[in-house]
């Protein structure tokens, strides 16, 4: 088996090691119980808030009675139309509402897409490090996750790695762009090369929820647009969510925009798996899509990123500066049998003894790394990074098991 597709736990290209028992929610509860007074949480997934247009509340109030009725499985037509307009603007394609299904957030959209595309035993290519739920969702929907190790490329998926991973059972590529947790954003040229390495029968499920979060000026390359240029008849689903785009995780609503003919299958799968999102959330999402707030979305993150990169480099951790998202993916290479920074046990120890919680990389398929969120107050970020790097330096140098200071 090519090295590029070998799983991190030696499982022959299957999913890598599991994350903490009970998931990150259980680890967060344990960390807060162990350090109730001054825990700094750098594991957050929510973005910093953005202004909420008055139109969102007005739309919900005007149509409040609609909440009494079920939404169609594909979503309310006004919401589908708003999502289609946004997708058309983002991609330069003429996308109508018939190509849109409104889903209960990106994770539900992923499940619906997998259910619509997979037959039992089909393989799904999952570049690692991956969003923590990907392998589990593929397996739950009857597929076989086939992990592509991108650590040597510092999180960047390459055409050669894709080509080496494809088998006759490959049905889909699950592509997060910009990627969570590594922050790599593939441009149009890179996406085109990756699609060229895939047989046309292989669908692309494009998790594009961080498309608004780019540190550079190049703009986001959508898999829908690149696949249209490819003109191979490839099935594509692109996911977006209010959790990130509108900074409203509590709405639990998002959009799945599909290639021609695929959206009805998404709706059929949603009718079985989850149903449509709540009507009030759909109304708010439509209003937001039609009238998003103006401003530089990344302005608060840029100074945080500079501080984080400086602090982590001074602490001996390796970081590829992210192209997008609001995370930093920090790696602490081990020598021999030295400690791994990215295990659940280490994360809890850091929380308990140093008072800082980071998301352990093992959840994303890499025990040598941790994910650090920039969506926290800057003073918390500075203090938390100081606690992390001080404690990890002591672990690495063998002074004490971990820093015992309670600063």
Please name the defining characteristics of this protein.
407 residues, alpha/beta, Aspartate Aminotransferase, domain 1, Aspartate Aminotransferase, domain 2, 2 domains, seven-stranded mixed sheet, four-stranded antiparallel sheet, 14 helices, 13 strands, globular
Structure description:
With 407 residues, this protein is of the alpha/beta class. It has 2 domains: 10-48 and 300-397, Aspartate Aminotransferase, domain 1, CATH 3.90.1150; 54-290, Aspartate Aminotransferase, domain 2 (3-Layer(aba) Sandwich), CATH 3.40.640. Helices cover 37% and strands 14% of the residues. The protein is built from 14 helices and 13 strands. It has helices at 23-34, 54-62, 77-91, 105-117, 134-140, 159-165, 188-196, 223-230, 242-245, 263-273, 279-290, 301-314, 344-354, 378-397, and strands at residues 40-41, 100-103, 123-128, 144-149, 170-176, 203-207, 236-241, 254-258, 318-319, 327-331, 356-357, 359-360, 369-373. Strands 2-8-7-6-5-3-4 form a 7-stranded mixed β-sheet, sandwiched between helices. A 4-stranded antiparallel β-sheet has the order 9-10-13-12. Strands 1-11 form a two-stranded parallel sheet. Strand 6 (203-207), helix 8 (223-230) and strand 7 form a beta-alpha-beta unit. Helix 3 packs parallel to helix 11, helix 4 crosses helix 10 and helix 7 packs across helix 8. The model is unreliable at 1-17 and 403-407 (pLDDT under 50).
């Amino acid at each position: 088996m090519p090295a590029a597709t070998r799983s991190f736990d030696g499982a022959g290209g299957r999913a890598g090691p599991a994350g903490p028992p009970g998931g990150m929610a259980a680890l967060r509860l344990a960390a807060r119980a162990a350090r109730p007074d001054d825990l700094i949480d750098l594991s957050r997934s929510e973005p910093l808030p953005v202004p909420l247009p008055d139109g969102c509340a007005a739309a919900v109030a005007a149509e409040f009675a609609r909440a009494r009725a079920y939404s169609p499985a594909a979503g309310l037509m006004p919401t589908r139309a708003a999502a289609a307009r946004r997708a058309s603007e983002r991609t330069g394609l003429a996308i109508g509402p018939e190509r849109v299904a409104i889903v209960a957030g990106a994770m539900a959209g992923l499940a619906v897409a997998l259910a619509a595309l997979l037959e039992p035993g089909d393989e799904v290519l999952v570049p690692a490090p991956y969003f923590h739920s990907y392998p589990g969702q593929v397996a739950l929907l009857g597929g076989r996750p086939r992990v592509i190790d991108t650590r040597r490329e510092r999180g960047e998926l390459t055409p050669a790695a894709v080509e080496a991973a494809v088998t006759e059972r490959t049905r889909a590529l699950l592509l997060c762009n910009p990627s969570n947790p590594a922050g790599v954003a593939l441009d149009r040229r890179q996406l085109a090369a990756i699609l060229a390495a895939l047989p046309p029968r292989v669908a692309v499920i494009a998790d594009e929820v961080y498309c608004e979060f780019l540190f550079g000026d190049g703009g986001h390359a959508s898999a829908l647009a690149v696949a249209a240029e490819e003109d191979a008849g490839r099935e594509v689903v692109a996911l977006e969510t209010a959790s990130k785009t509108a900074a409203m995780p509590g709405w639990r609503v998002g959009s799945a925009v599909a290639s021609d003919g695929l959206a009805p299958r998404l709706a059929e799968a949603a009718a079985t798996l989850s149903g449509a999102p709540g009507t009030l959330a759909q109304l708010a999402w439509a209003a937001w899509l039609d009238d998003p707030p103006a401003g530089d979305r990344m302005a608060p993150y840029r100074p945080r990123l500079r501080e984080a990169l400086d602090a982590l480099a001074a602490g001996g951790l390796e970081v590829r500066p992210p192209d997008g998202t609001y995370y930093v993916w920090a790696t602490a290479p081990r020598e021999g049998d030295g400690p791994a920074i990215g295990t659940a046990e280490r994360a809890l120890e850091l929380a308990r003894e140093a008072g800082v919680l980071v998301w352990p990389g093992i959840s994303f398929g890499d025990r040598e790394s941790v994910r650090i969120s920039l969506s926290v107050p800057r003073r918390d970020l500075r203090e938390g990074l100081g606690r992390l790097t001080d404690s990890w330096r002591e672990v690495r140098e063998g002074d004490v098991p971990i820093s015992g200071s309670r600063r």
